[in-house]
Structure formats: C-alpha cells, structure tokens
Amino acid sequence: MLLRKSKLLIASLLILSLCFPAGSEAAAAVPRAVSVSGGSAHGIAAWSDGTVTGWGDNKFGQVGDGTSINQYIPRQVEGLSGIVQVAAAGRVSFALSRDGEVWGWGLDYSSYIENDPLLRYQKRGGPVKLEGLREVSSITANGSLGIAVKKDRTATLWYPSYDQPGVLPVQIHYLELKAVTGIRSALINGNDALFLTEEGSVKQMSIVNTVYNRIRLESDPVSVATIASSSITGMAASQGELFLLRSDGQVLRWNRGLKAPSAVAGLNNVYKLDTGFYRLFALKRNGTLWQWNYNSGVLAKPYQIKKGNQISNIWGSSGTFGFAQHKDGTLLGWGDRFDTGLATGRGTVTKDQAGYILTPVRQPLMFFVNGEPFSFYGTPSIKDDKLYVPPTSVFKALGVQVSYGTFKADPKYGNDPFTGWSFVYGNNIVQVKVSDPLELYINGKKSDREFTMNRLPDSAQFPLEAICDLLGIGLQWNKSTGEVRLEN
C-alpha cells in the first residue's frame, strides 16, 4: 500500500512539474500589460496586477504622478487599484476598475496644489472619480469627453462643463445615449458617437447640436444611422475616418464622403485594429504588425513595421505612435514621439523605408536609499543603457551637496574659474564645467575621464553611476526588476 501511495505521489509531482515548469512562478509574478493607450504625447498602461503606470508629456498632470513634470520613465499612478482598462486622449487619462468605476486625470481633471514645500508650482492632484458612472464595462475617450459602455449594454456620454472658469477639476455632465442598445463597444469620432452592437452592426449618432454648437441635450432630437448592418467584429477611428474589421479579417474604410464602407487593399486576414493621428494600425492573424499612413502620399499603402512579428495585441493613441505586445509579454512602442518622452529604450527614433522599429517600453524604476524606499518628483532617464537623474533627486538623501554656479578651480593646477555644477560629499568634490564638450574636475584637478549628461528639453540629467563611483557611494541597479539601491 505504501509503495502504491509513493507511486501516486511521484506521478502527481510529475504532472505538476509539467503544468508548472521551472521558473514559471517567477514568470507568473511579472505583471503583463492588459490595456494601453496613448494621448498626444503620453502613454498609460494598466497591468495584470491592477496597477497603472504613466509616462511622457505631463504639463496638465496627465501622467498621473502628481506633478506637471514630464516623465521620461514610467511612474506608477497612486490611488488606483483593480484597474482593467485605460483610455488616454489628448492631454487626459482615464481608468476603469473591475468594479465598474471610472477615474480621470490630466487636463480639466487634475487640480492645482499650491504651496507644496518641494514643488511649489508644479504639484497636481491625482485621479478623480467620475461619480456619475457605475456598472461600466468599457470606456473610450476623445479629448476630455468620453463614452462609458455599461454592463447592461447601454451607453453614457460624459463631458466637462466650464461654467466655473479656473476651477479644477471641472464639473462633469452625463448624458445617457438611449437611442442605441445592445452595445458591444463605442468610439467618438468628431461630432459622432459610433457603436458596435452585439449583432455585428455599426450605428452612428451625433452627439453635438450643430445649431447651437454644443453637446446635445437629452431633449434634443436624435437620429441613428446604420453604417454596416452585420459581420463587423471591431472598429477604430481617427480624424473623421472610420475603419471596420469584418469577421473574415478584411479591413473596411468609411467616411462621410463614401456611401458605403470599402475594402482596404493589403489589409486582410486582420485580427485587431487601432489608430493614431492619421494612422491605422493593424495586427494580422499571423502575428505581424502593419501601419497605414492613409493621409500621406509618400506611404500611401499599408506596410509592415520592422521586427513586427509574433505580436499578440496592439493599442493606439491620439498621437503619431502606437503600442504592441509581444507574445512573450514585452510591451513595445513605435512612432514619431518616442524620442521626446515616451520612454522607450532609445534616445532617438529609428526608421527606414519600411517604417519604424519596435522598441521596448521601459519599466518603472524603484529607488532605495540605505535600504529605505525613496521617491522624488523629477524624472530619471536612460540613454545608451546608462541611468541619469536630475540634481533634485537622490543626492540630498545621500548627503551630497549639489549646487550650480561659478567655482574657483584649484590654483595649483593652473585652472581658471568656471561655471558649472558641483557635487560635494565628505572630502570629495566633483565639478562639471558646462562647456562643449563637458569638462570634469575631481577635487579641483581636471580629469580626462569621459563624462556625459543626457540633455533633455526640461531637465539637466546627470549619470548616477558615474557620480556615485567618483564620490565613493555604493550603487546597485537591477535592470530586470528596475530596483536602484544606493548605500553610504
């Protein structure tokens, strides 16, 4: 009997080992992107653990880090949990929780916070709950307004009111769009709301009263047109153009100048659609990623994105970029704005006749100073696989005095006074002369050691590893987890 039980135990362990191969626990612990969206120049991602990260242009707080500082590395959005979908548009971001609640931040939604001791003029409020939305299953946005598809397959439009100028967040109005039911998904395209129904038809409804140039009221007359009557499984829209995905994988194009949707040559066998600014993104069933700059005479035909293979999902933006997920879970991006704050691994865009090259989106960085978690308002950056930080970041916590001004060089080395940055730690002084090229001085003596800064349009960025090495501060950067540990 004991032998039989042992054999059963061994067999059970063998089955478990086949179901959960070595390393699967670690792999399962790494969150995957479940929803990604881009505004004009920022990105938002929801992850399988329910968290949200944001990065990029942040003038109105649309990244969600509580500042109006551009963030070149993704930052976690505090105050959100259980998020299953995000939607970004222009300079605004939205998130939907598994409980059916919706949150918004950025233009019109993030309040100004004055007299912050560390960030007097650039502190912004976090996500605000849209109290008029409940039991929501999906969201879509166009600028500061959006449509929520409810779990009962009806839709509600939300939009900001400017009755009290200068007051943030603005008051949000809600309008039930009762003329269409059985809704699977929705889009906003110009003055129209577009609905994909459970039957596979596409309905069009105006959400603007063009006579009074305002969002229509519930009492205004409404008409619904049918653009496609059946067999539609997906849709995407941008700048007045509507693209439909037919059940056989063919992409159709429609606008007000066309009587009926027409097939797009070269875009068949497609699995999913999304759009950017005058761009159509398509994921084919064979895992290849395609783009069509349909408003361009140069790239008038769909083309495959370089290295756009083995792709499992795609997402668009209201800018000139998109996102894709590799089948291994890696989140990728491509487009025109990735060199100005959309946190890919590259400092510059790479493109050729076949278009843009997919590049991994950076994961958030987590800083620890002497074993304690540490955060700062400014943005870090990564260039050529080197980590850079602004002067107001980890240095003060480490006891490093940072200043900018004119410094007297050590006369025994025959150096003239110069303008630049100074880092003082104990008996060590590191100075950087602002010149082209940069000049490095160690304890007053000019050094031939190479020293580079990452020049960003809104932040001076210093090489953290190099400065810590020069000052004798311990640093460990785990590039696989994003942990940066500093010890002194």
UniProtKB/TrEMBL annotation:
SUPFAM superfamilies: Copper amine oxidase, domain N, RCC1/BLIP-II. The keyword Signal applies. Coiled coil: none annotated. InterPro entries: Mao_N_sf, Ran_GTPase-activating, RCC1/BLIP-II, Reg_chr_condens. Residues 1-26 form the signal peptide. It comes from the Bacteria. PROSITE patterns: RCC1_3. It holds the Pfam family RCC1. Keywords: Signal. The keyword Cell membrane does not apply. PANTHER family: REGULATOR OF CHROMOSOME CONDENSATION. This is RCC1 domain-containing protein. It comes from Paenibacillus rhizoplanae. The lineage of its organism: Bacteria, Bacillati, Bacillota, Bacilli, Bacillales.
